[in-house]
Amino acid sequence: MSKGEYIVECRSQGISKSKMTRDELNQWFDEEISFWNTLPGIDENVILYHKNLGPPNIVQAYRNMLTTARAAIVKDNDGPLRDFLAKANDLKAIIAHGGIGEQLRRLFDSKEKVAGQRLAIVMSSGVLNIHEDVERELSTLSVVLRFNPFILSTSDTVSAKAAMTRSIATEEKMRRARKEFETSIAEVTSMFNDFAKEKSEELDELHTQYENHLLLQGPSRHWKRVADTSWRYAAGAFIAFIVMLAAPTAVIAANWGAVSSYLDHVVEVSKGGISLAAIAVFTVPVLAYGWLLKHVSRVFTQNLVVNSDAEHRRVMAVTFLGLAKRKSVGLSEQDRALILNALFRPSPNNPHDDGPPSGLLDLFKK
């Protein structure tokens, strides 16, 4: 305890430990003395069994003890104060600021002077010089008040108040904890529901994309193979067409002498006229070879058409798969049906496949 500070505590009368300065303690002493001066009739004559035992001088006794303790404090001596507090803690003195003082005030306020006087006498054995007859007559009451188990168990009102305060604080903490727990549960439940909803939507989207992928991935690969195959066939037909055009020219150029001699012979045989045999000799091979070139070129054009159509379908399939993956596009069932109809439309018509000429007239027609 620092100099100039004093501790006041009396747990049995409900006064918790507190530190006071000298000025605060002087005010405390003034309030204690004033308390006893405001209890009218407390020092009236004690009458027991029609016998007048005189006044108990309670007010004067407390004034003397409190004045002495205050004078000692001025000299920085707290011995009388500690002695007074020790008697009060043993229920041998009354502190006006404590629970017994409050009860005494209520008794006098309700005009219960005799009861208040008897309580003050019994609880002030360490302060009063009690007449032996009064002490004897009130001994039973004193024993009941001092040694009643209920009073002993509840005399430490400070501890009781502290326990009650802790209980209230614990209850409040439990209430807040329960509220926080319920709030946390609600938040976790909401987060879980949002998470489940989000994942369900993602699974639905993945399911839709997977269906689209299975639906279009196979045809897309098929059209890729068709496009590659048709392009190879078209390239082969084009090369064959070029070779078939160049081959006769090369053969004629390589054997021009023989060809020239044969032409002269044909002219000489015809003797300046028109010979059907000579015409047939020249026209039939030429037309037959032209018919072959026509079909080679048809193979080329057909495969070009097939390649273009396959590439177009494949691009549409890949584009649809890409659009289906984007949430912002939002393809509807109508859009899906429209794209699928375009993807699975009939193939372009193939040119009529003519057979070889059955005779000379048929060859001329072709």
Please write out the topology:
Elements: E1 5-10, E2 15-21, H1 22-37, E3 47-48, E4 51-52, H2 58-74, H3 79-89, H4 99-109, H5 113-122, H6 132-137, H7 139-147, H8 149-154, H9 157-254, H10 256-270, H11 276-325, H12 333-343, H13 360-365
Antiparallel strand pairs: 1-2, 3-4
Summarize the structure.
By secondary structure, the chain is mostly helical. The chain has helices at residues 22-37, 58-74, 79-89, 99-109, 113-122, 132-137, 139-147, 149-154, 157-254, 256-270, 276-325, 333-343, 360-365; strands spanning 5-10, 15-21, 47-48, 51-52.
Structural class label: mainly alpha
Order of helices and strands: EEHEEHHHHHHHHHHHH
- Give me the oligomer status: single chain
Outline: rod-shaped
Count of helical stretches? 13
Give me the side-by-side strand order of the main sheet: 1-2
Major sheet: size, sense and barrel closure? Answer: 2 strands, antiparallel
Distance between the termini: 133 Å
Number of strands: 4
Q: Ranges with pLDDT <50 over ≥5 residues? A: 149-155
- Give the radius of gyration: 63 Å
The overall average pLDDT, rounded, is 77
Strand content: under 5%
Number of domains: 2
Helicity range? over 70%
